[in-house]
Specification:
single chain; 46 residues; mainly alpha; 80% helix
Length: 46
């Protein structure tokens, strides 16, 4: 169970980093921006 939680958190962090890079490149669509904002809130990155 702990391994599954760790995998999920690692996935969320990697997705956050991917979306941040995409935002920096100016290629983020509306759906991805909403996801990025949700991840920021979840990860406490505001």
């Amino acid at each position: 169970m702990t391994e599954k939680v760790a995998d999920s958190i690692n996935f969320l962090i990697s997705e956050y980093k991917r979306l941040l890079k995409k935002q920096k490149d100016g290629k983020l669509n509306k759906s991805e921006l909403e996801t990025l904002n949700s991840l920021k809130n979840f990860l406490g990155k505001n």
